[in-house]
Amino acid sequence: MKKLRFQLIIIGFLLAIFSACDNNSVFVEYKSLPKSGWNKDSLVVFTIPVTDTLHNYNLYINVRNDVNYSYSNLWLFIEINQSGGKEIKDTFELSLAYPTGKWLGEGWGGKKTRQVIYRRDVYFPVSGTYKIKLQQGMRETNLQGISDIGIRVEKAGS
User: Fold this and answer.
1) In sequence order, what are the residues at sequence separation of 6 or more whose Cβ sits closer than 8 angstroms to the Cβ of residue 127?
2) 3-class state of residue 44 by DSSP
3) By three-state DSSP, how is residue 93 classified?
4) Going from the N-terminus, what domains does the chain have, and what CATH number goes with each?
5) Residue 65 CB neighbours (<10 A)
6) Alpha-carbon distance 110 to 70, whole Å?
7) What is the reported pTM?
8) Residue 8 and residue 2: Cα distance in Å, rounded?
9) In this structure, which long-range contacts are made by residues 43-46, counting pairs with CB atoms below 8 Å and at least 24 apart in sequence?
10) Which 3 state secondary structure label does DSSP give 7?
11) Fewer beta carbons within 10 Å, N or C terminal of the chain?
12) 70-128 pLDDT tens trace
């Protein structure tokens, strides 16, 4: 009986691990920001290799913030550079909390992680290396409370 119970626990654990895997994700990376804060002049750069130009992709921005972060949102200046030299610039706002002050995202303790769709059905016209540059667009010169920023790229429509 104990052996059967142990096997059921192991099977349940393995199912949980495999169901958590995401086969659509083709790129995920986080960059830690300095504990002293994210300076408005500092760029966080992600280098994304693109080999499949037949599929469309969804782009996500991931943010880890401290619950002592002073704002309910985060403004970002985003620049995407294609390997052939074409460049796209954008401004994007992420909501990190409800108007009531309750944090959005996952996590417990002092950190919350929020994943927000930035663009859907993005088409990469040429294979090569794409760079995504993120810069904080808040009014503070040295933004406190954002510990990590990340990019996730997944195949769209799967």
Assistant:
1) 50, 51, 52, 53, 83
2) strand
3) strand
4) 25-155 (2.60.120.260)
5) 25
6) 13
7) 0.82
8) 10
9) 43/133, 43/134, 43/135, 44/133, 44/134, 44/135, 44/149, 45/131, 45/132, 45/133, 45/134, 46/131, 46/132, 46/133, 46/134, 46/151
10) helix
11) N
12) 999 999 999 999 877 889 999 999 999 999 999 999 998 899 999 999 999 999 989 99
The size of the chain, in residues, is 158
- Residue 30 is encoded by which pair of tokens? 């986080």
Indicate the burial class of 138 (C-beta count within 10 angstroms; 0-12, 13-18, 19 or more).
middle
pLDDT per residue over 12-37, tens digit each? Answer: 444 444 444 557 789 999 999 999 99
User: Scanning the structure block, which residue is given the tokens 């510990």?
Assistant: 147
How many Å apart are CA 68 and CA 16, to the nearest integer? 32
